[in-house]
Design goal:
Blueprint: E1 2-3, E2 12-14, H1 17-26, E3 34-38, E4 43-52, E5 57-66, E6 74-79, H2 84-97, E7 101-106, H3 116-133, E8 140-141, E9 145-146, H4 147-152, E10 157-167, E11 178-183, H5 191-199, E12 203-206, H6 214-227
Helix pairs in contact: 2-3, 2-6
The protein binds S-adenosylmethionine.
S-adenosylmethionine binds near residues 162 and 211.
Organism: Bremerella volcania
Family: Belongs to the RNA methyltransferase RsmE family.
InterPro entries: Alpha/beta_knot_MTases, PUA-like_sf, RsmE, RsmE_MTase_dom, RsmE_PUA-like, tRNA_m1G_MTases_N
């Protein structure tokens, strides 16, 4: 599977340099080979390679279809991101589980304030993970946002994950097509942040009596929300 950033004009597709090198050097592709391309917006293409150079591979679209492998409902995760490799790992797993949008959440006790370069790296991870798990829509990765900003445009079904919240009930998720979940940093949300979210109508919920790491809490919530049958 190969990512096509610019959808084909007519039948011809030119792969970008990175994908061309991958095709030519790693996959040792030849003229006449069939490959699958996706544009990150839902379209999937069957492509026959017509020219294979080390830096430029060209193909011809033989068929195309809109193929959705999205989850049963749209989940936005706003997460106070952990550092380094844990951040990249979290993004990869969110893509696999079908999270629609990830917002790096800026909190009082947060450790990683994502800069532009880090966001770009995470967006590249989204493409790589989508290739691997055959997802055709790219998960959006936003710039960092404050709690206030995230709460300002929250959907009706919004949850702040907190070890001392009320046990989460699947029924709270079932009717919603759009869900927001907020996950705090290693040091946890402050009492003021929890109160602010509650005032804006967020449910303060727990995922059980153990303290989960940031990634575990985010992925447990993602599993719950994306696998409960759709509304
Ligand atoms: N001592 C911190 C506290 O009390 O919030 C622990 C923070 S925990 C390492 C990081 C984040 O994961 C929390 O802010 C929360 O959003 C989420 N989390 C961890 N365990 C959880 C649980 N059992 N239920 C719900 N959310 C949890």
């Amino acid at each position: 599977r190969f990512f096509i950033e610019h959808p084909p004009t007519g039948a011809e597709v030119t792969f970008d340099e990175a994908e061309s090198q991958h095709l030519a050097k790693v996959m040792r592709a030849n003229v006449g080979d069939m490959v699958v391309g996706f544009d990150g917006k839902g379209m999937e293409y069957q492509i026959e390679l017509t020219s294979v150079g080390k830096k430029k591979v060209v193909g011809s679209v033989r068929s195309q279809a809109e193929v959705s492998r999205e989850a049963s409902r749209r989940l936005t995760l706003a997460v106070a991101l952990p550092k380094g490799d844990r951040q990249r790992w979290l993004v990869e797993k969110c893509v696999e589980l079908g999270v629609a949008r990830l917002i790096p959440l800026l909190t009082k006790r947060g450790v990683a304030q994502p800069v532009e370069k880090a966001i770009e790296r995470l967006r590249r991870t989204v493409v790589e993970a989508s290739k691997q798990c055959e997802r055709n829509h790219l998960m959006a990765v936003d710039e960092g946002q404050t709690l206030e900003k995230v709460l300002a445009s929250r959907p009706a079904a919004s949850f702040l994950l907190h070890p001392s919240g009320e046990a989460i009930h699947h029924d709270a998720v079932v009717p919603a097509s759009d869900v927001l979940a907020l996950v705090g940093p290693e040091g946890g949300f402050t009492d003021e942040e929890v109160a602010e979210a509650a005032e804006h109508g967020c449910q303060i919920v727990s995922l059980g009596p153990r303290i989960l790491r940031v990634e575990t809490a985010a992925l447990a919530m993602a599993t719950l929300v994306t696998t409960v049958p759709g509304p």
